[in-house]
Recover the amino acids of this structure.
């Protein structure tokens, strides 16, 4: 229903090298946010780590008061972490001064709110020109034409000279989206953009987001609408200031939401350098591992000496289950791949692993099936 997107640089795929090594577009590292008020202190984010890659459409879901807006406000720099790091593209957002922050935000992020927040005294087209005026992007003589082109994309160009009060809520949100696109930012962040719209209008706005993702934008959208969230490429679940580990959810898809949240809290985070062993053949089996970054090599000893790389495992895959299920020692060595950066894993100890399998029949069946396939493959090797 909407036309082609108007983009300065065509692709907005953003993969600079920088503090994040060029890997993730958005990288939150152990972010804590504690609010101080007369009533005392309240920790709204309890050490959240999250990565988002270019081109993802991420839905942020969770109960009211769980910390969704606080999380989003860390990325936009609307609010600052008490501790931890927020890296977006090649910018360490948490280190910017207020002045640097607003210019950075204006150029790199499009922000869309539940209540649109158009300036009431400016016309529709003037609202869309505002980010270009503020950041001095595009020549002054080009700005109106670009704003009109963006309004065309959201089917609002015929309302360009009206004041916001003279158009409907759904129309105001479309104008707000055009405004968010004014400086052609790679990332759009939206906090309940459909929360104040009827379902038909919400659907049209959501389709607009889907179209933007296809055109190369990366979108993070807070929503209460689970049907919409399911259509995003990924959901991030916020609960009581923590988020479910995305690799855990990928590795063990049979866990319930409550189980995912519980297990996320139990995870130990470990880092290994290239070539470093994680599990040693012959050692006692003590942990279950899920890879969150990089690759590992599973190594079998050959009868005549030498070693065989039986398998290479990557993000979202797990290892260590064979020894834990067998109750014995490690049968293979697993090490961080030589060619690559550091390998990051999350680990559950033996007791936590067995408690998890006891609590989730589906997970037990999944893990046992994988273990059986691996046993057969190792025997063949
Ligand atoms: N400025 C503040 N001072 C004190 N506490 C705050 C402040 N802002 C948020 N909080 C608290 O932090 C918690 C998380 O708030 P947040 O707005 O992030 O929740 P949310 O998940 O976006 O909820 P909703 O779905 O209702 O928008 C809440 O308990 C809230 O009361
Ligand atoms: Mg909120």
């Amino acid at each position: 229903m909407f036309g082609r997107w108007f983009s300065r640089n065509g692709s907005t795929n953003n993969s600079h090298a920088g503090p994040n090594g060029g890997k993730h577009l958005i990288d939150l590292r152990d972010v804590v946010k504690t609010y101080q008020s007369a009533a005392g202190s309240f920790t709204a984010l309890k050490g959240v780590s999250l990565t988002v890659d270019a081109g993802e459409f991420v839905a942020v879901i969770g109960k009211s008061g769980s910390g969704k807006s606080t999380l989003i406000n860390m990325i936009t720099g609307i609010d600052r972490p008490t501790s931890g790091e927020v890296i977006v593209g090649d910018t360490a957002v948490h280190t910017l001064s207020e002045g640097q922050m607003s210019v950075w935000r204006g150029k790199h992020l499009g922000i869309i709110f539940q209540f649109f927040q158009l300036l009431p005294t400016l016309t529709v087209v003037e609202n869309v020109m505002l980010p270009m005026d503020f950041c001095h992007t595009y020549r002054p003589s080009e700005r109106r034409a670009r704003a009109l082109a963006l309004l065309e994309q959201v089917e609002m160009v015929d309302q360009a000279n009206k004041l916001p009060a003279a158009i409907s809520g759904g129309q105001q949100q479309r104008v707000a989206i055009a405004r968010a696109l004014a400086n052609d930012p790679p990332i759009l962040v939206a906090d309940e953009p459909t929360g104040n719209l009827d379902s038909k209008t919400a659907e049209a706005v959501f389709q607009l987001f889907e179209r933007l993702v296809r055109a190369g934008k990366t979108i993070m959208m807070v929503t209460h609408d689970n049907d919409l969230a399911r259509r995003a490429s990924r959901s991030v679940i916020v609960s009581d200031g923590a988020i479910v580990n995305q690799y855990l959810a990928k590795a063990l898809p049979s866990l319930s939401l409550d189980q995912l949240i519980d297990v996320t809290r139990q995870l130990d985070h470990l880092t290994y350098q290239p070539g470093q062993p994680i599990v040693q053949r012959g050692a006692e089996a003590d942990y279950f591992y899920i890879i969150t970054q990089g690759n590992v090599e599973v190594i079998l000893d050959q009868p005549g000496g030498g070693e065989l790389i039986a398998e290479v495992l990557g993000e979202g895959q797990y290892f260590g289950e064979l020894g834990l299920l067998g109750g014995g020692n490690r049968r293979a060595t697993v090490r961080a791949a030589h060619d690559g950066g550091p390998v990051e894993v999350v680990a559950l100890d033996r007791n936590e692993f067995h408690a998890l399998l006891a609590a989730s029949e589906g997970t037990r069946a999944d893990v046992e099936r994988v273990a059986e396939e691996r046993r057969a493959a190792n025997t063949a090797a």
